[in-house]
Amino acid sequence: MWRQGRSTDITRTALVFEGSLGVLALLLGWTLGFSPLRSLSLDAGWMHAARGAGWGLLGTLPLLPLLLVLERYPVGPLEPIRRFVEEVIVPLFQDVSPGKLAGISLAAGVGEELLFRGLLQDGLASWIGPPHGVWIGLAVASVLFGLAHCVTWGYAVLAALIGVYFGLLLLAANNLLAPLTAHAVYDFVALVYLTRRTVIPGGQVHVFGQRAFAWWCLLAEKCTRPRRVNDYRRTRHKKRRSDPGEGSDRP
């Protein structure tokens, strides 16, 4: 019950925080006269939206090896990042259900991309104008994106590079839905992978169903232990009944 309440509090806090970034982007855009939703082209029809989402799903794939490198080869500046993930991120979200993780990831994708790519990058590019505005907007938005994730300097640099990647994805697809989808899907995959794995003796990492199998083995061990003790006592009792002299020579 306590874990359920804790996961609900974490989910609510994450949704409010990430959602507030989106609201902030919309309010700032309204104040400045620039809509962060401009590249979404909401009136362009479902084909435009499907194309942007497709770009985003494909754009998620190159990010997945980064997750494995961070997990298996935490050398140099990657080691503090992995330690932060293990000591903060995993304990924070390990009791949150996959459905709630999906909601948090979607909120992060929407809120952060509206602010950093939709407002800052696209807004600066439009304000400064081509050709330099495109690259200045990309650079400023990526640096600020990295600073917003500055839990360690290594993490900030890594986040800035990912921000550059999301920004290039926006330029390639000309649709905010592309980095938004990639951001949300990657966050979801990373959170599920990191919180649903189980490290067993020998250093192997078991994920998803294998984790359930590992817990099942532990449960079976605990459930069968009293039965084995009772079987042993029953066997000893039968042996004493069949051999009354056993134990008669005790002092």
Throw out a few tags for this protein.
mainly alpha, two-stranded antiparallel ribbon, single chain
Brief sketch in words of this structure:
With 251 residues, the protein is mainly alpha-helical. It has helices at residues 2-32, 46-60, 64-72, 78-93, 98-128, 132-148, 153-173, 177-195, 209-242, and strands at 197-199, 205-207.
3D architecture notes:
The chain has helices spanning 2-32, 46-60, 64-72, 78-93, 98-128, 132-148, 153-173, 177-195, 209-242; strands spanning 197-199, 205-207. A two-stranded antiparallel ribbon has the order 1-2. It is mostly helical and 251 residues long.
- Given helix and strand content, the structural type is mainly alpha
* Strand element count: 2
Taken in chain order, the helices and strands follow as HHHHHHHHEEH
Instruction: Give the helix level as a range of percent.
Output: over 70%
Rg for CA atoms: 27 Å
| Beta-strand fraction estimate | under 5%
Treating each run of at least 4 consecutive H or I residues as one helix, how many helices?
9
Compile the SSE list and pairings.
Elements: H1 2-32, H2 46-60, H3 64-72, H4 78-93, H5 98-128, H6 132-148, H7 153-173, H8 177-195, E1 197-199, E2 205-207, H9 209-242
Antiparallel strand pairs: 1-2
Helix pairs in contact: 1-5, 2-8, 5-6, 5-8, 6-7, 7-8
